[in-house]
Design brief:
Length: about 325
């Protein structure tokens, strides 16, 4: 073994190191280590959230240097990590993977990969169960795909008063208004509230309020439920916002927070004014008691394959009844 290493050309080893010096290539290798994935059908591009041309370019380099193998099936091409990697390359890959795999971007990749594989299983089930598949397609053709989430809003109590905190231009308020007695749309930016009024016109049960989420101009115990949608990553003290949210909720009231899971896209701080690079589950659950809630549920939302941002979570909080 030592003799072989002394005879090896240094540039060969340095080229192998260079292949793992690119984060995109490491992510692609990590994906094809977990499953054989296609390029022609966009599976790798979807899972990695990268342009297909970029994926193809990296895969070509990885194949040329012996990291992956390619298989053809009809007109499609499928890739997987080479099972019989040179022992030195195998150790290099394991070391690299283990050093970086805890980064948030790999969790996003894993979530999207699960969706890709689930879609593949759905396609297989449709192939073997034509009747069910035909009904699914017929329903989509007749009614589209967005009606389910909209219809589920009918489960809301029609007597509720719901606050849309950090309402922006009113996307949440617009969907809630037909289902509840009143929506209180709160934002600190007058420009956002002006845009909301232009968008929604005279929506009779949407009350527009200018105010800071750290000092809500609402009476204590006056709200049945509150939504904080993609807001907390802009604010320095999320717990203080939730504590103020709990104040305005009635006993037993509910708060829903939707935001980004932890990620490492540092450019968001400069480009979009993000204070936090998302939040992990443990941090969100830790807010509950500190903010005055007695219950918290957290779940990661299924990623939209067409989305380009980090993964999202939904967390529900409940104010004590007494």
């Amino acid at each position: 073994m030592n003799e072989r290493r002394r005879d090896a050309r240094p540039d060969t080893w340095l080229q192998a190191l260079a292949q793992l010096g690119d984060l995109a290539r490491v992510r692609l290798l990590h994906l094809v280590e977990q499953a054989e994935l296609g390029v022609g059908v966009g599976e790798l591009a979807t899972a990695a959230q990268l342009p297909q041309s970029t994926v193809s370019r990296h895969l070509k380099a990885l194949q040329e240097h012996g990291w992956i193998v390619k298989r053809h099936e009809g007109t499609a091409s499928y890739y997987r990590l080479r099972l019989e990697l040179d022992p030195d390359l195998h150790r290099l890959w394991e070391t690299t993977r283990d050093r970086v795999a805890e980064a948030a971007i790999f969790a996003d990749d894993a979530a999207r990969l699960a969706e890709v594989l689930a879609s593949r299983r759905t396609d297989s089930q449709a192939f073997f169960g034509r009747i069910g598949g035909e009904w699914h397609e017929l329903r989509r053709e007749l009614f589209g795909t967005g009606f389910g989430a909209e219809a589920l809003l009918g489960l809301l109590d029609p007597d509720w008063v719901v606050a849309d905190l950090g309402c922006g231009t009113g996307d949440v308020a617009e969907r809630l208004a037909p289902m509840v007695r009143e929506v209180v749309a709160v934002d600190r930016e007058p420009a956002m509230l002006d845009a909301l009024r232009r968008r929604l016109g005279d929506a009779g049960n949407i009350r527009v309020v200018e105010g800071d989420l750290l000092d809500l101009p609402l009476e204590s115990g006056s709200i049945d439920a509150a939504v904080v949608m993609l807001v907390l990553h802009h604010l320095s003290d999320p717990i203080a916002v939730l504590r103020e949210t709990a104040r305005v909720l009635r006993p037993g009231g509910r708060a829903l927070v939707v935001d980004m899971v932890g990620h490492d896209r540092d450019a968001y701080r400069h480009d979009m004014g993000h204070v936090h690079l998302g939040f992990d589950e443990a941090a969100v659950r830790g807010w509950s008691e500190s903010a005055g809630f007695d219950h918290c549920v957290w779940r990661r939302l299924r990623p939209d394959p067409q989305g380009k941002g980090p993964g999202l979570f939904a967390a529900g909080f409940r104010k004590p009844r007494s």
